Amino acid sequence: MDLLDSILNAMDAPPAADERQKTLIKKQREMMERMQNKQKEELLRFRKYVEERMGRFAKDDRLCIEFQPLDKLHRSVIHEIAENGGFIAMSFGREDVDRHSVVYKKENAPSEDEVTARRNGEGWNADIAKEYAERRKDRLAQEQIDKEAATSEAGSSSTSSDANGGEVKPTSNYKAKYAHLIGESAALQAARKTETNQSYGFVPSKNKKDMRSIEQTLADIQAKKRLRLQQQQEQEQVHQPEASTSTAEDP
User: Fold this and answer.
1) What are phi and psi of 203, to 5 degrees?
2) Per CATH, which fold does 25-123 belong to?
3) 3-state secondary structure of 104
4) Where is the composition biased (Low complexity) (predicted)?
5) Of the candidate ranges 150-154, 211-215, 229-233, 243-247, the one whose mean pLDDT is the lowest
6) Which residues, other chains included, contact 77 with Cβ-Cβ below 8 Å and sequence gap of 6+?
7) Residue 107 to residues 58, 62, 65, 199, Cα–Cα distance (Å)
8) Buried-most residue among 28, 178, 207, 230 (CB within 10 A)?
9) Per-residue pLDDT tens over the stretch 118-143
C-alpha cells in the first residue's frame, strides 16, 4: 500500500473540465486558422495562374479562353481579373455541376447565338455556329412570311369593306354551317346581325334625380358649410354665459 500511495501521489492530477474545454477551443481555433491560411495561399496561387493565362490570351489571336468548372469563389476571382484587364467574363452551366467561366476580348464579344448555345449547354464551335445561323435565317424568313400574310389579309379585308360600302361580311355561311347542329331557325337566329345599343352607358337627363348644374351644386355645398359654422358659433356663445354663471355661484 505504501508503494501504491507513493505512485498515486507522484502522478499529476487530471485537468479540470474548464482546462479541457479551453484546450479544445484553442485547438479548433488553430485548425481554423490553418485552413484559412491554406485557402488564402491556394487563392493566391489561383489568382496568379489566372493572371498569367489572361496575359498570354491578351497577346495571341484567340477569341476566348474557357476555364474548367469552378465554385463561385474561384469564378469571382476570374471575373475580377477579367474586368481589371479589360476583358468580358461570362459564366455558363448549372451551379455545382458544370458552371464555368469564359473570357472574351472586348473586340470579339460573343454573339447572341453563342450566348444562347452556351446557356443551353451546347458549347460553341463552327458547326454549332452554322446550325444557329441557319435557324436564325429560317426564323427571319418565317417572320417575313407571317408579316406579308398579315398585310395581305388586312388589305383584302379593307378592299372587301370598301366594296360593300363599309360593311364587313363574313366569309362563310354560318346558317348552313351550324344547321345540322342547332336547326334552321336557331342557326338563322345565331347568324343574324347584331346591333350596338347606342344608349348603353348613358343616363337620360329626365331620369337624373339631381338636375342642378355643377356651379349650383358647389354653391349649395358652400352655403351648407357656412350655415353649419354659424350654428356652431351660436352654440358656443350660448354655452359661455352658462359657464360664467355657474362659476360665480360656486363657493
Assistant:
1) -110, 125
2) Ribosomal Protein S8; Chain: A, domain 1 (3.30.1370)
3) strand
4) 151-167
5) 243-247
6) 43, 46, 47, 50
7) 12, 12, 14, 65
8) 178
9) 999 998 999 999 999 999 899 899 99
